[in-house]
C-alpha cells in the first residue's frame, strides 16, 4: 500500500510509432503527466521541500514562496499541502486559468504579475525580508538532484542502457541537468539535447532566458546540443501527439518531440527518449488544441 508521495516517479516509457521512417531509430516518451500533480515537476518539488525539511531549513510554521510558470507551482502546492506548509506562488498573469485554479485547489495563495522575470524578483524580495523561505528552483541543487535520484535511473533501466539521445525542454533546466549527470555517468556517449524557443516564439515551459536570469543550476557543458523550436512547430507536434499517439500533453512536450524527430531524421540508428512534461488538460483554455 502506498501513500500519494510514493506514486511520484516510475512513470511509463512509451514508444512513439508512425512519425518517421527509419526502422533503426526508436523514439520513446517519458510520460511525466502520470505523476499525481500531473508533471515532471512533482519530482523536483518533493525533493526541494523534503530536503529543506530534513536539513531544518524549514518547519511546519514556515511560509514558503516561489516564482513559477505553472507546473512547479502546482507540484509545490500539492507537496506543501501534504506537509501542512503555507505557500505563496507567484506566476505570470498570462498563465492559463486552469493552473491558477489548480494551485488554489491544493491550498496555495497565488499572486499574478506581469512576467516571469518580475515574478522571480518579487519572490526574492519577499524572501529577503526573512518572513518567507524561497525554494528558488532556478538555483536549488535539490531541483536537479531529483532527476539524478529518479528520472535518469528510470530511463536507463527501462531502455536497458540502450538510450543514445535524451531530449528535454529547458526551463529551470533541472530535468536536463540531473538526467545528463546520471546518464553520462553510465555512458559518456549518450547525447543530451536541450530545447529552447526561437527568438520570436513563446512556448510555456521552455525559456530563452536573458543572461541575468539564466538559472544558476544550468551548466552548458552538460548539454551536447541545443535545438531552437518555433512556436508553430511545438503547437503542431502537440496536436499530432494527442490525435495520432493519444499523448495529451502541453506545448513544451510538442517542442521536445519536434527535436526528437529532427534527430531521428539525422542519425542512422539510435534510441531517443524525450520528456513528455505534463498533461494537456491544463492548456484547454488556451488555443493550443483549438
Keywords:
290 residues, alpha/beta, six-stranded mixed β-sheet, 38% helix, 19% strand, globular, Cys_Synth/Cystath_Beta-Synth, EC 2.5.1.47, amino-acid biosynthesis
Protein described:
The protein has helices spanning 41-55, 71-83, 97-105, 116-128, 141-158, 174-186, 231-244, 251-264; strands spanning 13-16, 25-31, 63-67, 86-92, 109-113, 133-134, 165-169, 191-197, 225-229, 270-276. By secondary structure, the protein is an alpha/beta fold. The strands form 2 sheets. Strands 1-2-10-7-8-9 form a 6-stranded mixed sheet. A 4-stranded parallel sheet has the order 5-4-3-6, with helices on both faces. A hairpin with an 8-residue loop joins β1 and β2 (25-31). α5 (141-158) packs across α6. The longest helix has 18 residues, at 141-158. The mean pLDDT is 95. It comes from Sphingobacterium suaedae. Its cofactor is pyridoxal 5'-phosphate. Its EC number is 2.5.1.47. Pathway: Amino-acid biosynthesis; L-cysteine biosynthesis; L-cysteine from L-serine: step 2/2.
H/E element order: EEHEHEHEHEHEHEEHHE
How many alpha or pi helices?
Answer: 8
Give the N-to-C terminal Cα separation. 40 Å
Quote the average pLDDT.
95
Count the beta strands: 10
- Which consecutive residue ranges, at least 5 long each, have pLDDT under 50? none
State the major sheet.
Answer: 6 strands, mixed
Adjacency order of strands in the biggest sheet: 1-2-10-7-8-9
**Structural class, judged by helices and strands?**
alpha/beta
Helix content, binned percent? 25-40%
Proportion of strand residues: 15-25%
Gyration radius from CA atoms, angstroms = 18 Å
The shape, in one word, is globular
